[in-house]
Amino acid sequence: MKTYIKTLLIGSFVGAGLMHTSCSDILDKKPIDYFSQESYWGSKTEFEGFITAMSQMFRANYPANILFYAGEQRAGGFEQATIDGSGIYNSSVIQNIYDESNNYQFTNFAGYPGFIANLNELIYRCNNTDVLDEETKNGLLGIAYGWRAYSFFQIYRMYGGAVLRLEPDVTLGIYDPTQLYMARSTAEETLTQIKSDIQTSLDYFNSTDYVFNSSTKDYYWSKAATEMLAGEVYLWSGKVTTDDHTATPADVATAATYFNNVINNYGYELMDDYFEVWTTSHNSESIYSICYTSENDGVYYSYPPYYTMWARITGTAYNNYWSTQDKEGWGHVKGVANRFGNWYDTATGTSATFDIWNNCNFGPMRIQYKNALYFQYDEDDSRIDMFYPLWKLTEEESEGDVKYLDDFDPKAHDLFGVFVCKFRPKRISSSDYYAFANDMPIYRLALAYMYAAECANYAGDNATVEKYINAIRKRAYGDKWDESKHGYTAGSFAENENAIMREKDKEFIMEGQRWWDLRRLTVVKDGTQRDHFVFQPQGCIGYGLDPVANPWMIDINGNPIETDVSVLNGTTQDEHLLLWPLDEDLLGSDSALKDQQNPGYVKKEEDKD
Question: Is 0.85 topped by the overall pTM?
Fold first, then answer.
């Protein structure tokens, strides 16, 4: 009997390394419709093809989880209603309702073990081949260990202890499922492994000049990506206690070293215009991004832009509410394509037909940001152009079919809500439709700046806090930048942490940062778990606003916006929600995991036997 093992490399992976067993006592030839363990891994081209396939697997399965569902949707920034009346998406997640039976959000550690399994095989193959030159081998191992550390870190932040499977067991001939059962390691053991993988990745990168696909290198893991990850890991390790890991303050200084390396050693620069980040592939700010701009494979980003835009098929918002106005009338928004089909050029004061919204055909709007987020911006900040606000007309205005008001004052009209279009659609070549053909950044330079500011705040270095916050603001305000008016002047530790939170809310909306910021930023340096913003009023999306003095600051429901309601309620009953529950299918399928649910999660009574 001859056994062959197949690793799919067509288009993209769809799970963990997929295995196929074939028995034959007669045929001696290898099948031609799949790669066997003997026939694959036979050249440098095949090793590099595996990296391409891994990138496609990552693109297909993980960005939505990383950028949005895990990092933002549960972070207190969303309404429990939508402008156009569509049903809310993931309402239980928005409310932080979790249990192992029905509301666990993700299965099987968010799917990362499948990605890790393929990385384990790559590491094994690199270490057991003679077809790679040393430069290539070291470069590929640098990628593999960095990617694996990244995957384990996502599990660590979400669940605490991970199943630390570090060998390609099936590739090594272990097929008995009972021999593959493996319990979770502790959080401390998991963090130690992550740090070890990071150092191994850097060691390999430091021993080679190899760069994978240099012309599109930001689409693949790199040394700069490993250093960004290292900074994240050590900053989290230094400030956040997780199960048996106690926050280790000295790690914050280590994190700062890595962020400074990224900022100073790779030639990255902030884009001059904020929106160029979303319309320019391989831009000067991109450290590690997911490719959705290639028209060759027709894969475009759909989450979360698809669910935050107006549903043309309902027409509700279009028929009943108007947007901002100018001398041409209503429905024109400062120099950007707006949802009513016109483009207004602020430089010339003219508008023209722009048919984007006739061709996008979005589905129902399912996710609505709170009005409070819009109120955090001021009119000089270019990032406010992400929002298309809708104000309620007065009864008199509505009856008169008003198109323009000379004395229009948005503060005198109730804000019904805002649509968000951070990622700008474009027309696809040789077609009549638009798509969100935007690369999705996992790491970009602006993020390194904000992390560096956080490390500086921890070290009591107010000058550096100001330097990096104001660098982000200066880009956002552009020609309107006035440091005396818009610049940040550092204050106390808690004030600086709050400034970082507010700036990140505005800069990284829809990039999946907010939940992790809530978990890490704190009102007391080296305080308790309950001092983190997730339990504090500083975590409220409307914190710092004054709806009493500004009664126009209202939610969709017409009530004053909330300014001091924490995301989690601050009682010990909520503390277990800092980590996700393991789903009951996972617990029931692996005997080594059956009693390893995260503390605080139990089956509902009706689910118990």
Answer: yes
